[in-house]
Write a sequence for this structure.
């Protein structure tokens, strides 16, 4: 074995040990055998993210949709009924900021496809065209109760490119995993990252924060002019300026702005800049100082996608507080938790519990039924898919997780994941082979 090969094997072994959220134990769920027709999850605690938790309640699924929710539902005689007494049900968890598949595991240079850092403006690039559906981290995310992820380019650029919202159903390409009807998104970034990556002796690149704002304003103005010029013209494909066309989609509202930004003052500057063009971001991501401007964010209807407790990795992260999420929620901001990590994505439920506890310590009465929205309903809104998923209500897609116990307990595991009523993960019956061909012959099958 060559040295390089030995190093990759060690990395893979470390990956499997570090990311082993899935275990091969736990009691099975009788009645889940594959079949068609109605499916009923009977007698569990239903944390719907749409109201108070319902005890000893049923969730009735028909044709991939939630048909009814309540106690002692009268269901057809032929329905498959699964007894989940003692278990809990939540909407499938949604990670609104992930780099799975574009910074795939193991973390080697060959898998680093998240930042097209060849220039500060890369609106035309698309995360889905670099996404590797064989990333072993996807299966670990499923084991953590995650059913939907939003994959973004990295934050090296002022405009980093287009994100994609994916359901975690096995597929051969990102396109086959796309969340149906999810709107386009555009990743933007401000602060340390773009000026650090592009600002060293590179002509036409920002070296300061004021340079970042000026250059983004110019790029948006050019995109606006391009859109006006071409709104009534049929141009051949070889004459399309894909960079300007993508930014024109932002100006028209077709693409939701997802803006990496840490400092409160920079978020306010971005809001002012976007207002010049009649637009606003859907959410600020990372946003460790969002608590300082929480009333402004609530008034502007701009979301905040935050961590529970990341702090101090760089200067613009120094004013982070653990109660950030709870403070934002208390002010009426749509706050969502994100992972930005192949490890934290495995325990978003625990991250929500920790963020809730930080709020309680700060004297904030947020409540558990609000906190579950931080990883379900609110990220669904951030991604523009809240009419389909994020809550357990009749008419919504049956993207659900059945938990072994209280979702906010560190001892709880995801027992079952459904996407549109279809089983995609069951803890008691792990697959005989991994989802990723990359792990064949490396990870021992059960």
């Amino acid at each position: 074995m060559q040295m390089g090969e030995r190093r990759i094997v060690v990395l893979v072994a470390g990956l499997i040990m570090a990311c082993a959220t899935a275990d091969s134990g736990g009691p099975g769920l009788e009645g889940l055998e594959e079949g068609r027709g109605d499916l009923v999850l009977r007698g569990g605690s239903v944390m719907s993210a749409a109201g108070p938790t319902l005890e000893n309640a049923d969730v009735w699924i028909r044709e991939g949709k939630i048909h009814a929710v309540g106690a002692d539902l009268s269901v057809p005689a032929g329905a498959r009924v699964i007894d989940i007494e003692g278990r809990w049900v939540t909407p499938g968890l949604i990670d609104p900021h992930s780099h799975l598949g574009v910074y795939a595991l193991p973390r080697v240079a060959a898998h680093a496809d998240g930042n097209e850092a060849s220039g500060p403006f890369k609106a035309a690039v698309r995360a889905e065209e670099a996404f590797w559906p064989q990333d072993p981290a996807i299966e670990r995310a499923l084991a953590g109760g995650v059913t939907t992820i939003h994959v973004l380019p990295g934050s090296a650029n002022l405009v980093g490119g287009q994100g994609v919202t994916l359901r975690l159903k096995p597929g051969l390409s990102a396109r086959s995993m796309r969340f149906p009807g999810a709107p386009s998104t555009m990743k933007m970034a401000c602060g340390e990252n773009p000026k650090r990556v592009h600002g060293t002796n590179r002509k036409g690149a920002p070296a300061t924060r004021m340079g970042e704002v000026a250059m983004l304003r110019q790029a948006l103005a050019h995109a606006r002019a391009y859109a006006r010029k071409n709104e009534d013209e049929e141009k051949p494909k070889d004459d399309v300026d894909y960079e300007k066309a993508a930014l024109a989609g932002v100006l028209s509202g077709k693409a939701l702005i997802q803006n990496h930004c840490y400092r409160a003052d920079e978020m306010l500057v971005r809001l002012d800049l976007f207002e010049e063009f009649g637009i606003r971001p859907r959410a600020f991501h990372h946003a460790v100082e969002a608590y300082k401007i929480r009333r402004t964010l609530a008034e502007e209807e701009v979301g905040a996608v935050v961590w529970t407790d990341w702090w101090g990795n760089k200067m613009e992260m120094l004013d982070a507080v653990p109660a950030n999420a709870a403070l934002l929620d208390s002010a009426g901001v749509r706050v969502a938790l994100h992972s930005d990590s192949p490890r934290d994505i495995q325990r978003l439920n625990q991250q929500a519990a920790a963020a809730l506890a930080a709020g309680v310590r700060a004297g904030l009465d947020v409540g558990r039924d609000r906190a579950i929205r931080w990883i379900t309903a609110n990220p669904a809104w951030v991604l523009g898919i809240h009419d389909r998923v994020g809550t357990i209500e009749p008419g919504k897609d049956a993207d659900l997780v059945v938990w072994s116990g209280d979702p906010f307990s560190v001892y709880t595991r995801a027992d079952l994941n459904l996407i549109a009523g279809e089983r995609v993960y069951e803890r008691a019956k792990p697959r005989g082979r991994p989802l990723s061909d990359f792990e064949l012959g490396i990870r021992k099958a059960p």
Observations:
- The longest strand covers residues 54-62.
- Residues 93-382 form a domain with the TIM Barrel fold (CATH 3.20.20.140).
